[in-house]
Amino acid sequence: MIDLILIGIGTGSLDHLTLGAIRAINAADLILIPEKGPDKADLADLRRTLCAEVLTNPATRLASFTLPTRDPTIPDYRQRVDQWHDAIAHIWRDTIAAHPEAQTVALLVWGDPALYDSTLRIAARLTDTSVRAIPGIMSLNALTAAHAITLNEIGAPFLVTTGRRLTDEGWPAGIDTLVVMLDGDTAFRHLAPEGITIWWGAYVGMPQQCLIAGPLTEAAPRIIAARTALRAQHGWIMDCYLLRKAG
Q1: Of 119, 137, 155, which marks where a domain is finished?
Q2: What is the pLDDT of residues 43-75, one digit of tens each?
Q3: Strand 61-66, strand 129-134: pairing
Q4: Computed from CA positions of residues 120, 134, 159, 214, in that sequence, does the dihedral angle turn out positive or negative?
Q5: What CATH number is given to the structural domain containing 100?
Q6: How much is the pTM?
Q7: Which of 7, 74, 128, 144 is deepest in the core (most CB within 10 A)?
Q8: Helices 41-54 and 19-27: crossing angle, nearest 10°?
């Protein structure tokens, strides 16, 4: 029986690691490091740097694996994601099997394993494996802290959604505050901007952090330009934003 620990690491900053996360990293015999190709090599490097900073257990080993990509020929989104998760689980099995001495295996998860992350779903595909999760700082926590704003108005609800749903369904009724994640197409462009304020952040908590806030009418062009430039500079981007209607 393999003990698999999914460790939330926020944005990879030491400031985002809990004491529980540090203990879990040092309790692992093996830490799996996903590789996403040369354009995103610094994501793997950030994980290695984090381990180098907090690992004091000389017996812990790091093992890299190449993360597969989704099959674009599968038309149905859910089927495409399920096939991708199956492929990732298969690679995890093979990588762990190559280290038979490892009984406790860890994966460092951006943000928190519970919010818009599929690591727990992939782990559920593994047999003879017990799964534990160590909470991490969620991107919406990091975003609101970076802008020094509250997540909700007094006694009011908020909704966390995706860029895809915001584009397809528009602003949901009865909600004044939206947190939008996984938005590769700047879905806020499709909204009537009057009366909406946006707080946007990319690489929040990292050295390359970029923050823009203001009325959507004037902030939207600046965000789109900054996002394009940052993606070209780094080869990848992690961003999210909060939208709030006046009143």
Answers
A1: 137
A2: 788 899 999 999 999 999 999 999 998 898 999
A3: unpaired
A4: negative
A5: 3.40.1010.10
A6: 0.88
A7: 7
A8: 90
